Amino acid sequence: MTNIEGAGVRRSLVALSGVLALGLAGCSDGRSAPVSEGDVAGLPISHFESGLKPAAPEPDLDVTNVSSDEADRVAVATIADVEDYWSDALPGNFDVKFEPVKSLLSYDSDGENQENGCGDTKGNANAFYCNVDDSVAWDRGVLLPTMMDQFGPLSVVTVLAHEFGHAVQYRLGDKAGISRNTPTIVKEQQADCFTGAYYRWVAEGKSKYFAVSTSDGLNSALSSLFLVRDSAGTSATDRSAHGTGFDRTYAFQIGFEQGPTECAAMTLDSIQPRLTERPFDSGDRDGDIEVDQEAIGLLKDSLDQAFAGAKVQAPEIVDDGASCPNGSATPPATYCTSDNTVRIDLTALAELGQPVDQEGEFTGSSSGGHGDFAAFSEVASRYAMGIQKGVGASLDNANAGLRTACLVGAWAAVAAQEGQQMRLSAGDLDEAISDLLRPDSLVAADVDGKPAASGFNRVEAMRTGYLQGSGPCSTQYG
Length: 478
Ligand SMILES: [Zn+2]
Prior knowledge:
By secondary structure, this protein is mainly alpha-helical. The chain has helices at 21-25, 70-94, 143-151, 154-172, 184-203, 216-227, 245-258, 260-264, 268-271, 293-306, 346-352, 358-363, 372-390, 398-415, 428-436, 455-468, 471-476, and strands at 2-3, 39-40, 43-44, 51-52, 103-107, 115-116, 119-120, 127-130, 135-139, 210-211, 316-319, 333-336, 341-344, 422-423. Strands 5-9-8 form a 3-stranded mixed sheet. It has a 3-stranded mixed sheet with strand order 11-13-12. The protein has a two-stranded antiparallel ribbon with strand order 1-14.
């Protein structure tokens, strides 16, 4: 967030009040198209161990320099699996004959140099599609094992399915609108979308190699997409932009929900209006502010203004250790129904709100900070409980969690507008999504702190509020 300094200049927020009023009034009626916590884009919520199936067949593929490492086992199975998927999906959806990639290369970026059409591999901790020789290559020495340690085997599946998505793009050519001048962001969005389409096929139980549950399994796939996001402050028009975590999870979800033809139809014009990647505004510094008493005061003002239209008594925010005399405590922030207060543990919130260490997150050495906006979102979510209580909505079921995430998204959109004293800055939305996908996140949790089981639904709920305002929060999560 950005705190506009020297702010005796209180910019006017009045014009914005009422923005979040409409939907909330409908909390107890108007239930068109409700989303059930019992499904994820039409598939039942499943709970089982996700990853390589114990009885997976031995892939029949030629891979240069392959080892017997676990990372290679998962990588080679992924290639075999995505080839299975696309050998039906390409002719089925696009009337294009499937051709496997011409070569595959496993290497250790710390070990002996290998070479392919795109050059040397020494020191290149990466996984990539190389269009020069139509090959896919991956670093089994550093990149893959690090990802697996942090996010489990599905991170490898996610990254290589994405890289294979680029190979698919070259096979589709015109049919995906791809030319020499296609901006990187379009290619990346399509590849993430193709990854989502493939994951749906796996989640439907059609893969010989992998099992993915629609709860923890998909959560892990989404988190690993997030891992390879661009750094905050990258412009979406940058030639090498890959999209923010927010943008990337969106593309993945479109593929999962609507299939590969929607992915191929993405163009710069169609995606630009929803892309959130933007450079830091001047004066944002690095986009993180201290989570302290003053910031909580600004947050309270921002929330009061944003939710004024609901015309209910706004909850007070009290720093007293997140305990509630007559209700569940959900530290670091608790909504206490008995006296309509949000009780916070400011020290714990400040810790959660430490800047994100993207490098450390990757290597596992991060202090665990999720950024200021993660901390503010947690508080905002408990505040939104108070607003929901005020309009008579249920607070203790999965829909309450998703509705809350939606309202936090709607508030974030107000906070993104010009002239806010506490304003959303580049990278903030990714902090919220990274927080949302944590198992103990409050942002999509009910009043007792129980999060909605599906991270996929949590992310979608917050995005819905962010892009469409509070209206759908009550209609879809009634
Ligand atoms: Zn890519």
